[in-house]
């Protein structure tokens, strides 16, 4: 017989206790103890979309509505979705792929640095792209103006049947364009950064951070027509945009939003931005009715009548697993552009979908002396990094990629930022060091006010040079980039961490509409499609285009056209048939994330499903970040897929196969049938024999009875004590739940013993 089954003792909290016998004098009598299995209670919480199944103990997760927008991958709110690509989820009881095409046009010219602008004028769309102006008709571009080297528009606005163009600074004067596309420049020192029309007056801002205005019918090219200047806020903090807000002028600055009153006083109505100052704050501010949407580095703020609130995508970009590479990143990607659309808004994120990897090598060439900093830049420690204030005009920074196929940029975490006015050039090797430029979709997001390394951010490109080849740097052959500076950065400018961007950077285009549940979320964001433009800085809907209603969005080097069928409505947005269409749900807890569920069936109701219009439905369990496992192909309007899987969390993915049909397959409802798997707690009832001068089975003498009782009392109710049960199973997941002590005389002895009845309850 197993020795453990005869063992006379247990251990509780590492102390030995003798089990009582049925007959005390008979040392071969049976021990007094028992084990009971108690079903673990289920902490079931119904988010609102779980119903009872047809069989006892069955439940059904009903997914028939994804119209409440995108959310984090742990969000259990009914009607939300985690990821969508070219799928219309805007209506309840239906989601479906879109069809059609997008067209992106890159300008194969070297562009001036600066943002782009779109202006609808004389029923025609014009694209101000760096130094060039293009007339846009569908996918056709006609160049109508070249302002010259180093000249780029900063804003455009219609005024008095002309298009008024500002160029920023105090070098390039205001120009106007008439309906014949003739340009007229100001003859005197008339400059502007940004424009806005408030009631019947045209306002401008200047690089001195002042605003002024002209009356109706006045010529903006004449300096004398402009009013006296008004300084807005700190005159050292740049203005980043102008907008009308009812009868008020809204001035966006790097440190907040300033609203002018009747006395020309401009208070900052977003003072919380003062501590979040950034060179991109306030750019592309949008005013819709009583709301102003202000972009800042942390997200989007909506202001209305003295109240501001976060409504941005930072709320849905926070819970994605860090290991994900195909879905949203775990950080707010930042918004580069907003577009008003009635009461709704379009939002264009900065490129953000980029898995990161360690660089192979990072070196500084300081006047011909190479020093490797790789270890300090990949150690995930902010105490060590790469001090780049030693890099001057004759020095260089080198970063090596593992292969050309994974070379799309670098992401920098900066500890100390650069404040010096230097320029940075990023080069690749094609037989000589050649600079990345706008034809590669190049963006340096570390630049603030023309200063590189002025903030943490990405340096990336969306089109790889076709002539990029391997070279050798300091004896190491590979795919390198070279970063040069025109002079030394400010003292103690330090890059703490550096990672390479290994996939083509991608931006997201979203459509936001006011929420009925303003407490939960003031804006419902519908994820529509993806863009590979380097950085969208402007967007417009052109209702006058000969191709119909069209959405255009652009940077200074590329423009994309997306056709809208009929009224502006995201449900009618067409998507690329070459890309496919996909949705991914959040990770559903199915009512209790701490209980294993047996997934029995997935039932799909759809419309227009056939052999050509199909969709593959797949799943992932728990915290999985790898590939999804196929459940089956939906090629009929009613499908039932049997499953035999178990897990705590369930995530679904649907990938549509698009076909050349007017009506694509649409899915109306997905039912997931499941059961809770019962789990149990163990309860042990022990009768302990406690007496003085009791020897243990190992020959030692156990503590006196009073000490044994005191030891038990000290851990009564405590959780997770060490416990070896009567048959030798060790655990630290039990607690002493209860204790009752009674005295009993042994039959053959005058000395009494204590019988301690204790309960040990397993903690699960």
Concise account of the structure shown:
With 764 residues, the protein is mainly β.
Question: Which key features would you list for this structure?
Answer:
45% strand, 2% helix, 764 residues, mainly beta, 2 helices, 7-stranded antiparallel β-sheet
SSE blueprint and pairings:
Blueprint: E1 9-12, E2 15-19, E3 33-39, E4 50-52, E5 58-63, E6 83-85, E7 87-88, E8 96-97, E9 102-106, E10 116-121, E11 124-129, E12 132-137, E13 140-146, E14 155-159, E15 162-166, E16 175-177, E17 183-185, E18 194-198, E19 201-205, E20 210-214, E21 230-231, E22 239-245, E23 248-253, E24 256-259, E25 286-288, E26 291-296, E27 299-304, E28 307-310, E29 335-341, E30 344-349, E31 356-357, E32 361-366, E33 369-372, H1 374-377, E34 386-387, E35 396-401, E36 409-416, E37 424-429, E38 433-435, E39 443-444, E40 457-460, E41 471-473, E42 476-485, E43 494-501, E44 507-514, E45 523-531, E46 538-542, E47 550-554, E48 558-563, E49 581-584, E50 597-607, E51 614-621, E52 629-634, E53 638-647, E54 650-657, E55 666-676, E56 680-690, H2 705-714, E57 721-724, E58 730-745, E59 752-762
Antiparallel strand pairs: 1-2, 1-57, 2-56, 3-56, 4-5, 5-55, 6-49, 7-8, 9-48, 10-11, 11-12, 12-13, 14-15, 15-16, 16-17, 18-19, 19-20, 20-21, 22-23, 23-24, 25-26, 26-27, 27-28, 29-30, 30-44, 31-43, 32-33, 32-35, 34-43, 35-42, 36-40, 36-43, 37-38, 37-42, 39-40, 41-42, 44-45, 46-47, 47-48, 49-54, ...
């Amino acid at each position: 017989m197993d020795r453990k089954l005869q063992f006379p003792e247990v251990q509780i909290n590492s102390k030995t206790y003798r089990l009582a016998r049925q007959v005390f004098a008979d040392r071969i009598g049976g021990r007094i103890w028992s084990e009971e299995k108690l079903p673990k209670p289920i902490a079931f919480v119904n988010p609102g979309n779980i119903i009872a199944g047809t069989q006892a103990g069955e439940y059904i997760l009903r997914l028939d509505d994804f119209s409440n927008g995108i959310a984090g991958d742990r969000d259990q709110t009914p009607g939300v979705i985690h990821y969508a690509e070219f799928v219309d989820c805007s209506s309840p009881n239906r989601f479906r792929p879109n069809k059609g095409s997008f067209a992106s046009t890159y300008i194969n010219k070297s562009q001036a640095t600066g943002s782009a602008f779109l202006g609808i004028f004389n029923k025609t769309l014009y694209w101000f792209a760096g130094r060039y102006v293009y007339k846009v008709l569908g996918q056709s571009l006609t160049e109508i103006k070249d302002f010259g080297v180093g000249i780029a528009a900063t804003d455009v606005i219609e005024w008095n049947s002309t298009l008024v163009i500002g160029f920023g600074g105090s070098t390039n004067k205001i120009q106007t364009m008439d309906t014949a596309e003739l340009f007229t420049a100001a003859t005197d020192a008339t400059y502007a950064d940004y424009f806005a029309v408030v009631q019947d007056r045209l306002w401008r801002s200047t690089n001195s951070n002042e605003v002024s205005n002209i009356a109706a019918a006045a010529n903006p090219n004449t300096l004398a027509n402009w009013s006296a200047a008004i300084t807005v806020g700190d005159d050292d903090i740049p203005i980043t945009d102008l907008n009308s807000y009812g009868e008020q002028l809204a001035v966006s600055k790097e440190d907040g939003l300033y609203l002018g009153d009747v006395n020309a006083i401009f208070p900052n109505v977003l003072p919380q931005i003062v501590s979040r100052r950034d060179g991109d704050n306030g750019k592309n501010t949008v005013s819709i009715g009583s709301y102003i949407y202000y972009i800042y580095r942390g997200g989007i703020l909506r202001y209305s009548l003295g109240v501001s609130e976060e409504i941005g995508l930072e709320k849905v970009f926070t819970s994605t697993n860090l290991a994900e590479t195909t879905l949203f990143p775990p950080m707010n990607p930042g918004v580069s552009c907003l577009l008003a659309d009635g009461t709704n808004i379009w939002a264009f994120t900065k490129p953000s979908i980029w898995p990161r990897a360690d660089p192979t090598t990072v070196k500084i060439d300081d006047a011909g002396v190479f020093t490797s900093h790789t270890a300090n830049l990949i150690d995930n420690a902010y105490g060590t990094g790469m001090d780049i204030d030693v890099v001057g005009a004759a020095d260089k920074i080198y970063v090596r990629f593992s292969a050309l196929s994974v070379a799309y940029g670098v992401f920098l975490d900066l500890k100390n930022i650069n404040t010096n006015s230097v320029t940075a050039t990023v080069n690749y090797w094609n037989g000589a060091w050649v600079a990345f430029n706008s034809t590669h979709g190049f963006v340096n997001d570390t630049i603030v006010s023309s200063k590189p390394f002025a903030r943490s951010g990405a340096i990336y490109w969306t089109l790889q040079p076709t002539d990029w080849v391997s070279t050798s740097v300091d004896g190491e052959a590979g795919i390198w980039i070279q970063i040069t500076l025109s002079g030394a950065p400010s003292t103690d400018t330090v890059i703490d961490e550096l990672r390479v961007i290994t996939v083509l950077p991608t931006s997201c285009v979203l459509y936001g509409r006011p929420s009925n549940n303003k407490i939960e979320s003031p804006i419902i964001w519908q994820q529509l499609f993806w863009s590979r433009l380097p950085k969208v800085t402007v967007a417009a809907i052109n209702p006058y285009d000969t191709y119909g209603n069209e959405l255009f969005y652009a940077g200074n080097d590329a423009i994309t056209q997306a056709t809208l069928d009929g009224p502006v409505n995201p449900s009618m947005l067409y998507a690329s048939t070459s890309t496919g269409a996909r949705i991914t749900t959040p990770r559903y807890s199915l009512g209790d994330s701490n209980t294993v569920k047996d997934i029995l069936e997935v039932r799909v109701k759809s419309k227009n499903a056939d052999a050509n219009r199909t969709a593959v439905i797949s799943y992932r369990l728990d915290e999985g970040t790898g590939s999804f496992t196929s459940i089956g192909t939906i090629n009929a309007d009613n499908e039932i897929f049997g499953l035999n899987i178990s897990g705590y969390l369930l995530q679904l993915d649907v990938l549509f196969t698009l076909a050349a049909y007017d009506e694509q397959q649409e899915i109306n409802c997905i039912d997931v049938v499941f059961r809770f798997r019962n789990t149990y707690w163990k309860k042990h009832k022990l009768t302990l024999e406690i007496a003085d001068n009791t020897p243990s089975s190992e020959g030692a003498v156990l503590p006196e009875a009073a000490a044994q009782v005191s030891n038990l009392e000290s851990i009564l109710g405590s959780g997770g004590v060490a416990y070896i049960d009567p048959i030798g199973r060790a655990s630290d997941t039990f607690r002493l739940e209860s204790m009752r002590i009674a005295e009993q005389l042994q039959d053959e002895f005058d000395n009494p013993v204590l019988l301690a009845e204790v309960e040990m309850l397993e903690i699960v």
